[in-house]
Amino acid sequence: MPDWLAAGHSYYSLNYFYKQKFGEKIRKISLDAGLDCPNRDGTLGRGGCIFCDPASFSPSRRLNLASLSAQMEEGMRQPLVRSPAQRFIAYFQPATNTYGPLDRLRAHYEEAISHPKIVGLAVGTRPDCVPDEVLDLLAELARRTFVQIEYGLQSSHNRSLRWMNRGHTYETFLDAVRRSRERNLQVGVHLILGLPSETREDMRITARELAKLNLHSLKFHNLYAVKNTRLAEMAHRGEVVLPEMADYISWVVDFLELTPPNVVIDRLCGDAPAEYLLGPPWCVNKSAVKRAVEEEFRRRGTRQGVMNAEC
Ligand code: SF4
């Protein structure tokens, strides 16, 4: 029986993983290395993914803090009401954080992990932007600290990736995961549930695909729209319907039932600051989403991994 199940949980949360691994509460702090994205700067495409405004992902980009040190100090100062963390994961979050010269990337990562309160590194990136030498660098750092690479995938269906203007295929993602795992890197994957091109069964297909890949973690986002993006225009024109909470909860629980019990669930839904978010409004209430997911597991009498063949 998984530890998290014995402790009374219905899924393997990131907080539970951090407490197991580090023996205390750990918080991720978002850092902006000022890197661009090849899907925005014209290398692969212009305009980026239809849902993307990098500033909406990142406090550091919104606050316009210059140095990584200043961003770390600010991130560590942020109050966390119930239990303030004393140690942190440096999370390179906005844009594509493996997109740059190797020596520049090394300098950013080294600066972050040299801080005495930083216990690990999380690097968000695209699956088509991880040359072997960058993965080798992350593997070298992983021998000194906890390192996770987080790939934006969103869906295993190439038609959905085209609809979002991701600029890469599922096969590219599989290649990136294979090369990352060959180096023993912990791989996290970002997903969007509720894409208009996908049925409930399509989302289950993505869950079954990802269950085969020996991933470390999954981060779920509901389809939400940030102002001044192409997705927001589509939602405003009524071409896209942003999912209701009840539907989203069913999809998340479907997905988790098919996800192996050793995969950490980094997040159950996404949101953006009020000044950026067009909708849906329910996703800002993360506690309500968490309670609803737990309640749905209770109603079904299931848990994470219950429908995974290897459980
Ligand atoms: S790959 Fe990431 S940073 Fe680039 S456009 Fe898409 S969501 Fe934005």
Give the SSE layout:
Blueprint: H1 3-6, H2 14-22, E1 26-31, H3 54-57, H4 59-63, H5 68-77, E2 87-92, H6 102-113, E3 118-125, H7 132-142, E4 146-154, H8 158-163, H9 170-182, E5 186-193, H10 200-210, E6 217-222, E7 225-226, H11 230-236, H12 245-257, E8 264-267, E9 277-279, H13 286-300
Parallel strand pairs: 1-2, 2-3, 3-4, 4-5, 5-6, 6-8
Antiparallel strand pairs: 7-9
Helix pairs in contact: 6-7, 10-12, 12-13
Bound molecules: iron/sulfur cluster.
Iron/sulfur cluster binds at residues 37, 39-40, 48-49, 52, 54, 95-96, 126, 152.
Structure overview:
This protein is an alpha/beta fold. It has one domain: TIM Barrel (Alpha-Beta Barrel). 39% of the residues lie in helices and 17% in strands. Helix 10 runs parallel beside helix 12 and helix 12 crosses helix 13. The radius of gyration is 19 Å and the shape is globular. The termini are close together. The structure holds iron/sulfur cluster. Iron/sulfur cluster binds next to loops.
